Amino acid sequence: MVRWCRYSLLLCAAALLHASFPPGETFIYDFSIELADMNVSGKIGTIEVETLSNSIANGREICHAVVRLRSIDVIRILYPFSNSFYSSFDTQTFLPYRVENDIHQGKWTNRIVTVINPSNNTAHYSDRRNPYGKTLFLPPFVMDVLTVIYYVRRHDKTKPLDFVWLDYDRLRDVQITFNEGGNIKMKALARGGIKTIEAHEKVIYGFTVHLAKDFDCIPVEVTVPAVKVSKFQLFAKAHLSRYIPGKK
Questions:
Q1: Domain span at 127
Q2: How far is CA 159 from the centre of its chain?
Q3: How far apart are the C-alpha atoms of 155 and 138, rounded to whole Å?
Q4: Digit-coded pLDDT (tens) for 14-57
Q5: In total, how many domains does the chain have?
Q6: Considering only 35-39, 55-59, 184-188, 213-217, which range has the smallest mean pLDDT?
Q7: How far is CA 61 from CA 17, 57, 58, 92, 97, in A?
Q8: Helices 2-12 and 145-154 sit at what angle, rounded to 10 degrees?
Q9: Cβ 45 vs Cβ 81: under 8 Å
């Protein structure tokens, strides 16, 4: 469940990232676990992605955004989970300045805070195991779970994307490749099917993201391998169910 909840943040983070960053713009996804080999799936939660506000700091435009993951009532009785991931990032360089992750899974809780200093390419990281924090030394082109998908939406899809992923206190070299996707039924955006572009990461996380080709490359469906049980593979999946426009 820890891995499901962690990567579910990835599933829908991109949705808040429209060019204008209108505060209040919200994307809501159904979060489910799927056993594809047996065509069995069940909704276990919801994911909300919201643009909170925009600000200016040292002449730079900063976007403040959040992803909230919540278990539905039936699941909450058995195993409640409630995660929030906040990021404040530069809308031009995509560099996150401050990242906060509040995790509540069953009886386990954690609060993770990462503050990045772009002047010397370091970050101060603290969590439950490191209450006094530790220093991370960052290579160029580092992104978190929110900023990476923003960049993906604007990246030239004819070329692979290579970057360093800030995954809690770990730095991972990641490559995403793109190809034409099929049509997906998406009532939240349009009647009937919509054309998609597929974004794949095959080495570390194994995720597949379907981007709405004619709707500013909004992520409409994301699938992440969760855990393998016997010979069956469980997948965590998010599907866009509702879109709320923000204030222009």
A1: 2-244
A2: 21
A3: 22
A4: 444 444 578 888 889 999 988 766 677 889 999 998 989 999 98
A5: 1
A6: 35-39
A7: 14, 7, 9, 8, 12
A8: 40
A9: yes
